[in-house]
């Protein structure tokens, strides 16, 4: 693994880590680490520094829904055009072109079930190219972005092992 | 414990050599640690990663299918084949007929020593080294010679050939080494191989940390010219694949020696636990990515930790495993005093170095098999402690 990719992996796992510490972990010069990070930021490889929060644990209610969207394509409107239109809504968390019965998988975030229902009915379904939708409300998340959102096993190792 | 009031035996109950065995040097230290809360422990010689899920899943599935019986004394044939194939990466060419599955490397050490050593023959154990070699060698009736490797921690040709007239049967090697983390390059191993030929002895090569080799590629001493017939390789799944509690290891040895080991194994352990063997097979077949992930993380921790330790102490750069063995004598304290006071004053546990041989007395063993967060906190506390002296 190149050092550049190692830096990205470390940051993906902990965006708050200091350049100093990365430099120590990889036996590199701090300035060199900072330059690499800056370059990746400028090139759009590092898109943003994000924190993954277990909102349910924090007591904040948020409702997510995954909407399967089937569309009609035309000469004027291809997948990219429709996807970009859907993606611009602030309620939309993710848009993915997928294979299978439906064309897009759209993840929508709202304050309540009602909120999301209105959004789908009024904003998504009314897009002329949208043929039909199938909504799955998200009941509970167990794993997100590779992180487990439940208590995993505790460290059972003894304090001293020869 | 209930005190029995029966008739006393008119002679010593315990075997003489068992009686004479010294208890582990860290027993007192164990007692100090019990009952203390919030200790950051760098004393644990085991990965902080759980057994990779795909391996656990395979073991669970095998239980559901009812795979719960004895295996052959040698172990599952598929696993032995996979091991022979796997070990080619370390340069050693063997077939499954040279492989025995053991209950951890610990059983392998015992079997290997008992299979080859006669009372009165000499076993050379370079120190500092893992705690069980000398006692197990001693129990075979051997004369145990401990050779100090301080301060560089590498045994050399010159260190060994001095014992040419001592009826040496076995040289014990462990690389990458617990507790120092040092390992041997191919060139250094070739020099050791020359010494082995001069001594006309065997090598028991404990390569349990082979997968966790960072500074250079691990080479098995058995792969060097002529050594395949003089080497008993020991390895297992505890460290590289984080399967400590599964107790599954293996020995690769010349056929006649392996047969000798199997004789003892079949009368004592019979076979390694089948569930663990199934897990081990999955580790070899599909565990490479997880192994690589853990390895990369240990390298990052090593670099970070050694840099910080070097602000305080002399530390030999570990080539592998997950231990650092700093010399703490600059603080004016012995390894034992340092470990005790660090525990009492800063709640950080490290292992006093004399547990691994006398020459380690000025050192402490720190295992960096803890998360970066804990490692950072531990080394900060060590620094505070050293500055307070």
From TrEMBL, chain A:
Keywords: DNA-binding, Transcription, Transcription regulation. Residues 1-61 form the HTH asnC-type domain. It comes from the Archaea. GO terms for molecular function: sequence-specific DNA binding. Gene3D superfamilies: 3.30.70.920, Winged helix-like DNA-binding domain superfamily/Winged helix DNA-binding domain. PANTHER family: HTH-TYPE TRANSCRIPTIONAL REGULATOR PTR2, TRANSCRIPTIONAL REGULATOR, ASNC FAMILY. This is Transcriptional regulator, AsnC family. It comes from Geoglobus acetivorans.
């Amino acid at each position: 693994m190149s050092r550049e990719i190692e830096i990205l992996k470390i940051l993906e796992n902990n965006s708050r880590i200091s350049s100093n510490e990365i430099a120590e972990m990889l036996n590199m010069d701090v300035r060199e680490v900072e330059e690499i990070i800056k370059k990746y930021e400028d090139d759009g490889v590092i898109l943003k520094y994000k924190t993954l929060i277990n909102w349910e644990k924090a007591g904040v209610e948020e409702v997510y829904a995954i909407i399967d969207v089937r569309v009609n394509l035309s000469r004027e409107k291809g997948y990219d055009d429709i996807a970009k239109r859907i993606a611009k809504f602030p309620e939309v968390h993710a848009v993915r072109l997928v294979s299978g019965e439906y064309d897009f998988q759209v993840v929508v975030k709202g304050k309540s079930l009602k909120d999301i229902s209105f959004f789908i009915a009024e904003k998504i379904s009314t897009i002329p190219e949208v043929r039909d939708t199938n909504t799955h409300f998200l009941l509970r998340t167990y794993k997100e972005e590779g992180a487990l959102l439940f208590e995993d096993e505790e460290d059972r190792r003894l304090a001293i092992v020869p | 414990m209930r005190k029995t009031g029966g008739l006393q035996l008119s002679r010593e109950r315990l075997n003489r050599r068992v009686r004479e065995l010294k208890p582990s040097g860290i027993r007192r230290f164990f007692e100090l640690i019990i009952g203390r809360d919030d200790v950051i422990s760098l004393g644990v010689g085991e990965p902080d990663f759980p057994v990779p899920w795909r391996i656990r899943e395979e073991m669970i599935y095998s239980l559901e299918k009812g795979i719960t019986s004895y295996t052959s004394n040698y172990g599952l044939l598929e696993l032995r084949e996979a091991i022979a194939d796997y070990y080619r990466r370390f340069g050693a060419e063997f077939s499954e007929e040279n492989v025995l599955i053991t209950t951890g490397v610990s059983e392998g050490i015992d079997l290997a020593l008992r299979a080859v050593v006669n009372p009165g023959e000499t076993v050379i154990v370079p120190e500092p080294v893992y705690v069980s070699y000398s006692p197990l060698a001693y129990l075979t009736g051997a004369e145990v010679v401990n050779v100090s490797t301080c301060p560089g921690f590498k045994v050399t040709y010159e260190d060994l050939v001095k014992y040419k007239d001592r009826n040496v049967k076995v040289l014990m090697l462990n690389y990458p080494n617990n507790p120092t983390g040092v390992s041997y390059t191919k060139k250094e191993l070739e020099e050791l191989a020359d010494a082995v030929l001069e001594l006309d002895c065997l090598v028991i090569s404990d390569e349990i940390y082979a997968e966790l080799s960072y500074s250079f590629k691990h080479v098995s001493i058995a792969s060097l010219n002529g050594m395949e017939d003089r080497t008993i390789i020991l390895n297992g799944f505890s460290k590289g694949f984080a399967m400590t509690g599964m107790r599954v290891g293996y020995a690769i040895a010349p056929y006649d020696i392996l047969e000798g080991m199997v004789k003892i194994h079949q009368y004592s352990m019979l076979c390694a636990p089948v569930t663990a063997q199934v897990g081990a097979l999955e580790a070899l077949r599909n565990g490479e990515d997880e192994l690589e992930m853990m390895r990369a993380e240990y390298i990052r921790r090593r670099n970070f930790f050694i840099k910080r330790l070097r602000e305080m102490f002399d530390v030999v750069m570990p080539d592998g495993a997950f231990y650092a063995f700093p010399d703490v004598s600059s603080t004016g304290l012995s390894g034992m005093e340092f470990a005790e006071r660090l525990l009492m004053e800063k709640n950080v546990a490290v292992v006093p170095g004399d547990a691994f041989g006398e020459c380690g007395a000025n050192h402490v063993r720190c295992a960096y098999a803890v998360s970066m967060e804990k490692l950072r906190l531990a080394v900060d506390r060590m620094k505070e402690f050293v500055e307070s002296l």
